[in-house]
Write a structure and sequence with these properties.
Elements: E1 3-7, H1 11-23, E2 27-30, H2 37-44, E3 48-51, H3 60-68, E4 75-79, H4 84-92, E5 97-100, H5 105-126, E6 129-132, E7 135-138, E8 143-146, E9 149-152, H6 155-166, E10 172-173, H7 174-181, H8 191-206, E11 214-216, E12 220-222
Parallel strand pairs: 1-2, 1-3, 3-4, 4-5
Antiparallel strand pairs: 6-7, 7-8, 8-9, 10-12, 11-12
Length: 224
């Protein structure tokens, strides 16, 4: 369930929005303390913020900037102000979308669903891929892709590349790699890692990926 924070000083409208969003399966919270909006934000831990511009104390632009100092959560302005300058200011202050009042409830829900897909659901899919220097490792099928080439990896080859690619630009020690590969075997010869690394490098070279994994003598391996 996604948490939504509604920052709207019209109590009737705020309650109507809360009820509408609850019907669609969202957990909507209405901010009631306009002097301390950041406390409400921290308590709600929202996935999306719905923000009016004309609210007591400071306006929505101010609070949008304050939220942006600590979070990249999507912020949707919902306001009766309709000038192009208001829309520009909303976007320039960190807003992600702008909906004018009065709004169609179906349009509001559709926009929120689109933002959720872009921000959270698509991101989940994207994180299943790791890319380094045009080399792509698919965490789902454990295959490596480079240009038009596709490389089937053994379990240890996959673990080796995953560890090195996740630490791109950092040296990964031989001890750390050995623990990743043979954590349950206390008697693996250290030369086994060298043999595995040489085989992996040869497979990479065969599909045109040369000089991908560098050796740092006395330290370990790195993908620069």
């Amino acid at each position: 369930m996604y948490n939504l924070l509604i920052i709207e000083d019209d109590k009737d409208l705020a309650d109507a929005m809360r009820k509408l969003l609850s019907k669609w399966g969202y957990h909507a919270v209405v901010c009631e303390d306009f002097e301390h909006i950041m406390k409400s934000f921290e308590a709600a831990e929202p996935h999306i913020v719905l923000m009016d511009i004309n609210i007591p104390a400071f306006d929505g632009f101010y609070w949008c900037k304050k939220i942006r100092e600590v979070s990249s959560v999507p912020i949707v302005f919902v306001s009766s102000r309709e000038s192009s300058m208001d829309i520009v200011m909303a976007m320039n202050n960190g807003g992600d979308d702008y909906i004018q009042k009065p709004f169609d409830s179906h349009v509001l829900v559709a926009k929120l669903q689109a933002i959720i897909r872009r921000t959270y659901e698509y991101r989940t899919v994207e994180t299943q891929l790791i890319e380094c220097n045009q080399v792509i490792l698919n965490l789902n099928d454990t295959k490596l892709y480079y240009g038009e080439a596709c490389l089937d990896l053994t379990k240890n080859e996959f673990r080796t590349l995953k560890t090195l690619m996740e630490n791109k630009g950092k040296v990964v020690s031989r001890e750390s790699l050995m623990k990743q590969l043979w954590n349950d075997d206390l008697y693996v010869n250290e030369n086994t890692l060298t043999v595995n690394m040489n085989r992996l490098r040869k497979k990479l070279e065969d599909i045109g990926v040369g000089d991908f994994i560098h050796t740092k003598k006395g330290m370990g391996y790195i993908i620069p």
